[in-house]
Amino acid sequence: MENIFITYQEALSILASHVTEFPEESRRLEDCVGAYLAEDLKADRDFPPFDRVTMDGIAIAYESFSDGRRKYAIQETAPAGTPQKTLKDPKDCIEVMTGAIMPEGADTVIRYEDLELEEGWAGILADTLKPRQNVHFKGMDIPRDQIIVSRGTRLSSAEINIAAAVGKASLRVKALPRTVIISTGDELVEVDQMPEPHQIRRSNIYGIQSTLKQWGVEAALQHLPDDKEAMKQIISKLLQQYDLLVFTGGVSKGKFDYLPEVLESLGIDKHFHKIQQRPGKPFWFGSNREGKRIFALPGNPVSSFVCVYMYLRYWLDACLEVGQPALYVELKKDVHFTPDLVYFLEARLESREDGKLIADPVKGNGSGDFANLVRTDGFLVLPQNKSAFSKGEVYPFVSYRTNF
User: Fold this and answer.
1) What is the pLDDT of residues 176-220, one digit of tens each?
2) Where are the alpha helices (DSSP H) in 57-101?
3) Residue 173 DSSP class
4) What is d(CA 399, CA 349) in angstroms, rounded to the nearest whole number?
């Protein structure tokens, strides 16, 4: 029996049951920003690897200060990057620079601001000192062999820094799927063309392409005419070249919405077609025996945008075994929505001084009003089986802005 109009949660469950294990590849460290780590990064030695001086000044044995000594002969100087010095006499001190190894026999550093220096002597001006102050002790941050960055992490400059610090000139990362985004429909023309009154420019695919690029997935672009045989021939070739095919348009009930029929004729199993949601109900997902995954999104721009963020992102995260932290926001005003559907409502976020994130719903003129997307920051996820959503209530929010 055909599964029609499944729920939002059912759709997520089906997507999770059709994850793909992406292969691994080795990349040079400098080419890894934005990639997903396929190995654990472990400390190859203690962090820091030695007792490290954190202030320019002098190093002393604290016991001498507690015994009343306030003036010290400067034995020598220990710059950063030189082998460890030894304090030979606790009545003396060693002048030390930030980053140097703490001299053997010393345990406390006094910064220059608390000293009076003259002709080989250092006088301590402070009345009190903390023992072991201004020293970053060996292994204090991370002990040797401890995992610092876990596999599955998306690599930012912070993780690249760690990789370099543990001696990784190259990294094992996930090879993301070969992807193509395909627009459908004879009404579409290229972006550099002037449309006739009955035409529009191909815009959806560029928005989806840039979104996938933000997630680390490079995608090619393709177009299909409203012709069954032509669609079949082109898609057949694309299935040989790509692992992930993302369509926009051609999946609703229109007379020329041939895509579901063509996909199934090419041996692609449909896992679901319609979801109890607004916008984006006619969303089709399937796969074939070779493990190719097909996401056929609605043609209306807001609908396709919603499905990319709600479902394609969910599937990618499941494949990579990573999860996006949930973001919850407070409604700024009452919302009423009568249909028994999950409602993905566009909203603008406001950050308050009390630490709250407030979502101000900005209702557009339907799923074709993609201009409304530039006035908002993401989508509220308003649950099914409820029609009144009150000011002050808290709901999940999916952002498409990088600042949230």
Assistant:
1) 999 999 988 766 667 777 767 776 667 788 899 999 999 999 999
2) 62-66
3) E
4) 9
